[in-house]
Design goal:
322 residues; alpha/beta; Chloramphenicol Acetyltransferase; six-stranded mixed sheet; two-stranded antiparallel sheet; 16% strand; globular
Length: 322
């Protein structure tokens, strides 16, 4: 969604195209309260007709999940007792810190090609994992267990590209911060990512997203607040951070004649749910930017964190590229 907004707000040439003929927009009449209630009632009835189809898909999906989870080469990524508590899983204050750094996309691709079966996303996870490990080790807080990240994934089909709104699910992946060697950690992340994809594909990311449409907004809000409160009081969170990799355009974009130099992202941070540390990763015009959004109490030294990310990139590049 963010990339679509960016594309809509920018031009492909410095001069732009001021002579585009845009047809006039026919505004709908603002509906009155009774009309809104009627539309809501009709939509709710339509949703009920979709429920049997989702239930029919859910039964075999649960069977596939159980079968996949029972494989010897698949490990559940987020099990209570396995995800360690860190400074990023505590109460979030009202104060934010934001920082970012940039790498060459070709260098990230070279890291990816150094380990068979590794994807760009795996390489990104490897860079971020090494940076988080370096930062916690600097503060003397590196857990022995592997940290775990939530990685949002798009469930938008090819036919839905260009539609407004977000259609996103997520997978949970172990960052293997328990491994000191950079090359070994990348190979382990590749395996952890494969396991997480198998589990996500077994259920179907789109199926999980569709089910949320049947939860009333008031119930969803109460459940979210309850889950956040329980997670904040738990000594074992479900995840430690969020890392999202969003591919962007590889051609220059312009706004009012000025070229966009780089794109850096920001993300929400929430108490307890592993959202005290959000790393948005964006690619644009031959570069990859790694940003960070956190809380000032959790990360009083964002410059140190970004130095750790840069150190992780250099170490991983030296360990994998001959």
């Amino acid at each position: 969604m963010g990339q679509e907004i960016t594309a809509a707000l920018h031009d492909l040439e410095p001069e732009g195209n001021p002579h585009i003929n845009i047809p006039p927009v026919q505004k709908d009449k603002v509906p009155e309260g009774i009309a809104l209630l009627g539309r809501a009632a009709i939509n709710n009835v339509r949703q009920l007709f979709r429920l049997p189809s989702l239930l029919k898909d859910a039964v075999p999906a649960l069977g596939r999940l159980a079968q996949t989870a029972s494989k010897d080469d698949v490990t559940m990524p987020a099990v209570p007792g396995r995800v360690p508590q860190t400074r990023f899983n505590k109460k979030v204050s009202a104060h934010r810190v934001v920082a970012g750094t940039r790498f060459e996309l070709d260098q990230v691709k070279a890291i990816k090609q150094s380990v068979d079966g590794t994807t760009i996303n795996d390489a990104i996870l490897g860079i971020c994992a090494g940076g988080i490990r370096c930062y916690l080790d600097y503060h003397g807080e590196l857990p022995e267990e592997s940290l775990t990240a939530m990685a949002p994934i798009s469930v938008r089909s090819d036919e839905e590209k260009g539609d407004a709104g977000n259609q996103v699910s997520a997978m949970i992946v172990r960052l293997r911060t328990d491994i000191e060697d950079d090359a070994e950690r990348l190979a382990a992340i590749r395996e952890a990512s494969r396991e997480s994809k198998e589990l996500t594909n077994a259920v179907g990311a789109r199926l999980m997203t569709d089910y949320t449409q049947f939860v009333p907004s008031a119930t969803a809000g109460l459940a979210s607040r309850l889950a956040t409160r329980l997670a904040a009081n738990s000594s074992r969170p479900m995840m430690n951070c969020v890392i999202t990799n969003v591919p962007g355009p590889q051609i220059p974009l312009y706004s009012a004649g000025a070229r966009m130099v780089d794109m850096y992202g920001m993300g929400p941070v929430i108490d307890g749910l592993g959202l005290g540390l959000f790393l948005p990763v964006l690619s644009y015009c031959g570069g990859v930017t790694v940003g960070v959004t956190s809380c000032r109490e959790m990360m009083p030294d964002p410059e140190r964190f970004m130095a750790c990310i840069e150190e992780s990139f250099e170490d991983l590049r030296n360990a994998t590229i001959s």
